[in-house]
Structure formats: C-alpha cells, structure tokens
C-alpha cells in the first residue's frame, strides 16, 4: 500500500453514530500490518473510519472528504476517533490513530 501510515491496534474506534466497536476492514491484521479502514459492526450502518478522512459514510463514485466537525490531533494532524462514551456526563473521548500518541480530546 502506497503512503500507508500505521494505525494503532491497541484501541479500536467506536462508531460516531452508534458507539459500537468498529472492526478493521482489511483483515487479518497483526503487529506488522497496517490497517486503513474500520467499519461499524452494525450491519445496517455503513459508517467507516479511515485514517485520512476520519468518520465517513462512503458513497459510490464520491471521494470521501473530511467532515467539518472531525477533530484532528494537534501533534500529528491525523483525524481522531472516538474511544469511549460517557453517558452520564454525556461526552465522548477521541484519540489519535498514531501508535502511542497520548493526545485525548473531550467533546460533548
Ligand atoms: Zn454505526
Ligand atoms: Zn497524535
């Protein structure tokens, strides 16, 4: 894969619509293999997280674009993904896909 960046595999993204764990689309994977996309495990949801475009719902024949509300890591400029939802305090936590990046972002 050209220009593929590594994506961490220690934490998995959650769907930004369902807060379900997303699964890597390119399987199988291991420590030597970089993942480019994750998708929601809800079979009716077509939400994906791509390492360059962040959260997106792919449409046939259209190039995915970065959503205006998609947060990026200050350090790496990479689109961040949701790692947890706090239903009591009603906020989500985003993390950077860069391996070992400690940046976290809270969003209501
Ligand atoms: Zn979903
Ligand atoms: Zn980062």
Written account of the structure:
There is one protein chain. The protein is about 0% helix and about 25% strand. Strands 1-2-3-4 form a four-stranded antiparallel β-sheet, with no helix packed on it. It contains no helices and seven strands. With about 110 residues, it is mainly β. The structure holds zinc ion (2 copies).
Strand arrangement, major sheet = 1-2-3-4
* Uncertain parts: none
Kindly provide the radius of gyration, computed on alpha-carbon positions and rounded to a whole number of angstroms: 13 Å
Record field, number of beta strands: 7
The coarse overall form would be globular
> Could you tell me the mean pLDDT?
85
Order of secondary-structure elements: EEEEEEE
Major sheet description: 4 strands, antiparallel
Bound molecules: zinc ion
Number of H/I helices: 0
**Share in β-strands:** 25-35%
């Amino acid at each position: 894969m050209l220009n593929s960046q590594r994506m961490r595999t220690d934490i998995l993204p959650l769907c930004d619509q369902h807060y379900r764990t997303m699964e890597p689309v390119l399987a199988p994977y291991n420590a030597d293999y970089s993942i480019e996309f994750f998708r929601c495990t809800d079979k009716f949801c077509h939400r994906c997280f791509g390492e360059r475009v962040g959260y997106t719902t792919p449409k046939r024949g259209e190039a995915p674009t970065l959503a205006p509300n998609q947060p990026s890591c200050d350090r790496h400029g990479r689109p961040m993904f949701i790692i947890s939802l706090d239903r009591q305090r009603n906020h989500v936590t985003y993390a950077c896909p860069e391996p070992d990046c400690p940046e976290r972002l809270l969003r209501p």
